[in-house]
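Board notes (copied after class):
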Amino acid sequence: MPKSLKASTILIVDDEWPNIHLLKRFLGEAGFANLQTTTDSRLALAMYQQLHPDLVLLDISMPFLNGFEVMSQFRREC
């Protein structure tokens, strides 16, 4: 994989820590180092605005805001 892809910023939004740890492990083993995470869907928009991630891995079923609601917030930002 090209180095430029491995420098990508990836935002992981999931309310379950085990899922986040698993994704971080797999992505880290693949060479991705710029991984940002949150378990609180209410923080996702602010993180998106601050980080301008290249990729968002978003859980669909979360408390407070589900993945579809978070994605709607992201779309309004673009």
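Comment from the instructor: The beta strands are 10-13, 35-38, 55-58. The chain is about 45% helix and 15% strand.
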